[in-house]
């Protein structure tokens, strides 16, 4: 069994911190969470102003990234930076981060943006087979 070295601690620390900071992923608010290192990732559960959420994170040094899922089905992603210190058999840390909603099952789909005609180009003129300009009303069938 390989021994734990000091060089693996920053990665485990950042991964645990990433899950802790990013597990709630509900915007700027106070959060409390617990992350458990699983290989290069950290699986975490957190609670904050957005409610309870579960997340997976990883990190290198003080930088961490993660994805969180809320009970409502909302999926968020985030990135953070922080520091932690060993306390007994665990690490306790603090950090700051930013997150965004990647998927919200209750958010209605956005309608496509309306297409605006270009105002900078020349106006379109229809011509018949002999090259004569066709009036707009005739093109539309209203003359």
Could you explain the architecture of this structure?
The protein has 143 residues and is mainly β. It has a domain at 9-103. It is 13% helix and 45% strand. The protein has 2 helices and 8 strands, in the order αββββββββα. The protein has a 6-stranded antiparallel sheet with strand order 1-2-3-4-5-6, with helices on one face. Strands 7-8 form a two-stranded antiparallel sheet. It is rod-shaped. 26% of the residues are buried. Residues 93-130 are annotated as: Disordered. Keywords: Signal. It comes from Acidovorax ebreus (strain TPSY) (Diaphorobacter sp. (strain TPSY)). Residues 1-26 form the signal peptide.
Task: Pick out its properties.
disordered N terminus; Lipoprotein; about 140 residues; about 15% helix; six-stranded antiparallel sheet; two-stranded antiparallel sheet; rod-shaped; mainly beta; signal
In short:
With 143 residues, the protein is mainly beta. The chain contains two helices and eight strands, in the order αββββββββα.
Question: Tell me about the biggest sheet?
Answer: 6 strands, antiparallel
Helix content: 10-25%
Q: From N to C, what is the helix and strand string?
A: HEEEEEEEEH
DSSP strand content: 35-45%
Task: Count the beta strands.
Answer: 8
* Silhouette: rod-shaped
Low-confidence stretches: 1-8, 14-27
Q: Measure the end-to-end span.
A: 89 Å
Rg over CA atoms, rounded to whole Å, is 28 Å
- Average pLDDT confidence is 75
The number of distinct helices, counting runs of at least 4 residues, comes to 2
**Strand arrangement, largest sheet?**
1-2-3-4-5-6
| SSE class | mainly beta
Protein name: Lipoprotein
Region (Disordered): 93-130
Signal peptide: 1-26
Keywords: Signal
């Amino acid at each position: 069994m390989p021994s734990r070295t000091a060089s693996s601690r920053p990665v485990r620390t950042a991964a645990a911190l990433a899950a802790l900071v990013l597990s709630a992923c509900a915007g700027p608010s106070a959060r409390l969470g617990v992350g458990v290192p699983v290989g290069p990732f950290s699986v975490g559960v957190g609670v904050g102003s957005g409610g309870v959420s579960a997340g997976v994170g990883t990190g290198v040094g003080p930088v961490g990234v993660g994805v969180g899922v809320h009970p409502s089905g909302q999926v968020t992603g985030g990135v953070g930076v922080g520091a932690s210190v060993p306390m007994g058999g665990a690490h306790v840390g603090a950090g700051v981060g930013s997150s965004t909603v990647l998927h919200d099952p209750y958010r209605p789909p956005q309608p496509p943006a309306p297409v605006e005609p270009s105002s900078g180009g020349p106006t379109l003129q229809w011509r018949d087979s002999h090259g004569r300009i066709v009036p707009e009303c005739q093109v539309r069938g209203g003359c």
